[in-house]
């Protein structure tokens, strides 16, 4: 039985707009192209020239520099919000005021309190899904299948590391990650809120509920306010320790996000590294992983899921209630790190 009223658009296709024409929007729009039952009819960005360029690349007719004007003029069923975090609350409320369903880039809001207030405000008015797409990667879906099938057994320990060099200055004094996303240079909540939030969501997807036990952060770049190193200690309800360690300033690593994951279970161990996914134990198995290709697949799968669940009325996998649990882990990490410094 459907949990929500299914969305049945006039003409059969969902009419969708995307807000935000930055670098990440190309992956969103490439994914929307693959959904037969939806059509992106407008692109909105405060920089109208940038919106026009992105719209032209994907043959989209509507171009706007003002979201309110777009909502007033276009007949929309859904909007894909692909902007920076400080704008998410305002834009989601604007969409709700027009009865337009929302797919919102993570995090839903800069803080847990703001996100919780937003969820309460729009509940019952629109459907809201958080675009937390990393869990849709094929290698994580396969690992989830192994765990659910009992091949790993009870999880006894987990370590996940994410290292990249994107915030180290190059020979010209530029940071590749900041060149790609300039807003990161001014974020006070950086590594955990911007990237490790993905890893925390994936671990919740794989292991179930988690609690934050301890957190340590370090700001290594004097001209940037946000943390660039973090180590987090969590635990499962059964007390199994889970360690997440990340760096934006790791010499010798690439600029793209790369995960190494080790899960020690009662029956088998799992290793995810640059060679792929491996189940080590009596019934071992290795699965190659195309990480470069998987990046777009994550967008494809998340957006396809959004459309399918809108049309079926079934709950979103990354709906607001689920995402608030991930945001609580982020909030707890910052609180524990701050308490340690104090």
Describe the structure.
Helix content is 36%, strand content 24%. The chain is of the alpha/beta class. It folds into two domains: 14-126, Rossmann fold; 135-298 and 327-341, Dihydrodipicolinate Reductase, domain 2 (2-Layer Sandwich), CATH 3.30.360.10. The strands form two sheets. An eight-stranded mixed β-sheet has the order 8-9-10-7-11-12-13-14. Strands 3-2-1-4-5-6 form a six-stranded parallel β-sheet, with helices on both faces. Helix 1 (25-33) crosses helix 9 (291-312), helix 6 (138-148) runs parallel beside helix 8 and helix 8 (191-207) crosses helix 10. The longest helix has 22 residues, at 291-312. The mean pLDDT is 95.
Can you lay out the helices and strands and say which pair or pack?
Blueprint lengths: L13 E6 L5 H9 L4 E7 L3 H10 L4 E3 L2 H7 L4 E4 L6 H10 L3 E5 L6 H11 L5 E4 L6 H11 L6 E9 L12 H5 L10 H17 L3 E8 L10 E7 L5 E7 L11 E7 L2 E6 L2 E6 L3 E3 L3 H22 L7 H22 L1
Parallel strand pairs: 1-2, 1-4, 2-3, 4-5, 5-6, 7-10
Antiparallel strand pairs: 7-11, 8-9, 9-10, 11-12, 12-13, 13-14
Helix pairs in contact: 1-9, 4-5, 5-10, 6-8, 8-10
CATH architecture of the largest domain, by name, is: 2-Layer Sandwich
- CATH class identity of the largest domain: Alpha Beta
SSE succession: EHEHEHEHEHEHEHHEEEEEEEHH
Adjacency order of strands in the biggest sheet = 8-9-10-7-11-12-13-14
Shape: globular
Strand residue percentage: 15-25%
By DSSP (H or I, 4+ residues per run), the number of helices equals 10
Biggest sheet features: 8 strands, mixed
CATH topology type of the largest domain? Dihydrodipicolinate Reductase, domain 2
Stretches with pLDDT under 50, minimum 5 residues: none
Helical percentage = 25-40%
Helix/strand structural class: alpha/beta
Q: Give the CATH superfamily of the largest domain.
A: Dihydrodipicolinate Reductase, domain 2
| Count of extended strands | 14
State mean pLDDT (0 to 100 scale).
95
> Taking Cα atoms only, what radius of gyration do you get, to the nearest Å?
20 Å
Number of domains: 2
Distance separating the two termini: 51 Å
């Amino acid at each position: 039985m459907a949990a929500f009223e299914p969305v049945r658009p006039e003409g059969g296709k969902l009419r969708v707009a995307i807000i935000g024409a930055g670098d990440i929007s190309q992956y969103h729009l490439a994914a929307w192209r693959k959904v037969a039952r939806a059509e992106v009819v407008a692109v909105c960005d405060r920089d109208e020239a940038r919106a026009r360029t992105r719209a032209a690349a994907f043959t989209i007719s509507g171009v706007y520099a003002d979201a309110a004007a777009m909502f007033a003029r276009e007949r929309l069923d859904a909007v894909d919000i692909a902007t920076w975090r400080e704008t998410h609350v305002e834009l989601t409320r604007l969409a709700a005021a027009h009865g337009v369903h929302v797919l919102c880039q993570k995090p839903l809001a800069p803080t847990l309190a703001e996100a919780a207030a937003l969820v309460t405000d729009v509940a019952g008015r629109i459907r809201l899904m958080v675009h937390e797409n990393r869990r849709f990667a094929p290698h994580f879906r396969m690992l989830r299948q192994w765990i659910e099938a009992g091949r790993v057994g009870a999880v006894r320990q987990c370590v996940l590391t994410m290292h990249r060099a994107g915030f180290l200055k190059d020979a010209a004094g530029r940071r590749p990650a900041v060149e790609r996303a300039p807003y990161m240079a001014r974020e006070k909540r950086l590594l955990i809120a911007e990237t490790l939030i993905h890893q925390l969501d994936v671990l919740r997807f794989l292991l179930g509920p988690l609690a934050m036990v301890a957190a340590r952060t370090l700001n290594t770049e004097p001209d940037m306010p946000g943390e660039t190193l973090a180590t987090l200690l969590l635990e499962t309800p059964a007390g199994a320790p889970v360690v997440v360690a990340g760096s934006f300033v790791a010499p010798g690593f690439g600029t793209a996000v790369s995960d190494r994951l080790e899960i020690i279970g009662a029956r088998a161990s799992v290793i995810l590294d640059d060679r792929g996914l491996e189940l080590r134990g009596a019934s071992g198995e290795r699965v190659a992983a195309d990480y470069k290709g998987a990046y777009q697949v994550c967008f494809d799968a998340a957006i396809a899921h959004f459309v399918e669940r809108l049309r079926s009325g079934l709950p979103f996998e990354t709906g607001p209630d689920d995402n608030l649990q991930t945001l609580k882990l982020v909030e707890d990490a910052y609180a524990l790190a701050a308490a340690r410094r104090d």
